[in-house]
Amino acid sequence: MDTQPVQGATNGENDESVLLNEEGVAGGSITKRIEDKVRAGLKVEHFEIVDTSGNCGSSFAIIVVSPDFAKKLPLARHKMVNQLLTEEIAQLHAFSQRSLTPEQWAKEKR
């Protein structure tokens, strides 16, 4: 199955983007749990999740943009996210993340 990024609904400051398969279905409940836990633990301004496993649901990459990452080194940011997702990461074959401040995200979008 091919996947394509689809822009989700915009909710106030939050800009949501989800990867849907050709049937328009998100990559399973683990994607929802990952997003819900990250949003519950951090002030998220932008979130993306991509199934990098060819839709078998065993590998994911995320981008999290949050002001909570300000003045933190990348390792500390990754630890913040990993601690929120301990159970989910344990179920995956691979997990990668990009944890950016809103300022970093704005520079990348140019």
UniProtKB/TrEMBL annotation:
<dbReference type="InterPro" id="IPR045115">
    <property type="entry name" value="BOL2"/>
</dbReference>
<dbReference type="Pfam" id="PF01722">
    <property type="entry name" value="BolA"/>
</dbReference>
<dbReference type="GO" id="GO:0051537">
    <property type="term" value="F:2 iron, 2 sulfur cluster binding"/>
</dbReference>
<dbReference type="GO" id="GO:0006879">
    <property type="term" value="P:intracellular iron ion homeostasis"/>
</dbReference>
<dbReference type="GO" id="GO:0005634">
    <property type="term" value="C:nucleus"/>
</dbReference>
<dbReference type="GO" id="GO:0051604">
    <property type="term" value="P:protein maturation"/>
</dbReference>
<comment type="similarity">
    <text>Belongs to the BolA/IbaG family.</text>
</comment>
<protein>
    <submittedName>
        <fullName>Bola protein</fullName>
    </submittedName>
</protein>
<feature type="compositionally biased region" description="Polar residues">
    <location>
        <begin position="1"/>
        <end position="12"/>
    </location>
</feature>
<feature type="region of interest" description="Disordered">
    <location>
        <begin position="1"/>
        <end position="21"/>
    </location>
</feature>
<dbReference type="InterPro" id="IPR036065">
    <property type="entry name" value="BolA-like_sf"/>
</dbReference>
<dbReference type="GO" id="GO:0005829">
    <property type="term" value="C:cytosol"/>
</dbReference>
<dbReference type="InterPro" id="IPR002634">
    <property type="entry name" value="BolA"/>
</dbReference>
